[in-house]
Design brief:
alpha/beta; five-stranded mixed sheet; binds iron/sulfur cluster; about 200 residues; about 40% helix; binds uracil; Uracil-DNA Glycosylase, subunit E; 8 helices
Length: about 200
């Protein structure tokens, strides 16, 4: 049996968040500190999906509170998307990492397809409750989870598409962490901003 058994029927967001705290739908709960569930208003018009919580999110329990989150906040604001109207979450809700060879640092690992599929019932439950008008996928993990394995962010970024099985529209872009790692950081940021600006125009 899968993750569905942990998802309470008829729960509100707080109920879901509480239940996700004891999810054992895949092995990632074993090494992570805690579940990092989505955050934001239940009536958000925009739902932003990242990949997996990072080190700071794992310590904090809140999504996108580290460096990638700060860049995301700035880009949303500049794109004219009211950050207080945005619900942010991740495709996978436990931090995946390997310890650094030396020291206490923990190095982020991309979740496997199996882990993304295992965590999907939580994302579906968030989408069911919030019913956003627009879903923004940050990076390939989120885009493939929601738009299909064949989706290519490099080719289809910034395009307004419909979200399969739902009335929402979706726009994908790169993950803000990739902007932070880019050689041409200013250029990568401009492209992220262009995609988010296109996303903003898809709002009713
Ligand atoms: N990267 C993500 O994909 N999600 C977070 O919450 C933080 C960093
Ligand atoms: Fe459950 Fe998702 Fe955590 Fe796996 S990553 S244990 S499916 S909440």
């Amino acid at each position: 049996m899968g993750t569905e058994r942990y998802v309470p029927a008829g729960a509100d967001l707080d109920g879901l968040r509480a239940a996700a705290g004891s999810c054992r739908g895949c092995d990632l709960y074993k090494d992570a500190t805690r579940t990092v569930f989505g955050a934001g208003p239940a009536d958000a018009r925009v739902l932003v999906v990242g990949e997996v919580p990072g080190d700071q999110e794992d310590r904090n329990g809140e999504p996108f509170v580290g460096p990638a989150g700060r860049l995301l906040d700035r880009a949303l604001e500049e794109a004219g998307i009211d950050r207080t109207q945005v619900y942010v979450t991740n495709a996978v809700k436990h931090f995946k990492f390997v310890p650094a060879e030396r020291g206490k640092r923990r190095i982020h690992r991309t979740p496997s397809r199996t882990e993304v599929v295992a965590c999907r019932p939580w994302l579906d439950a968030e989408l069911d409750l919030i019913e956003p008008d627009l879903v923004v996928c940050l990076g390939a993990t989120a885009a493939k989870s929601l738009l299909g394995q064949g989706f290519r962010v490099t080719k289809e970024r910034g395009e307004v598409v419909s979200l399969p099985g739902r009335s929402a529209r979706a726009v994908s872009t790169v993950h803000p962490s990739s902007v932070l790692r880019a050689d041409d950081r200013a250029g990568a940021y401009r492209e992220l901003l262009a995609d988010l600006t296109a996303a903003a125009t898809a709002l009713p």
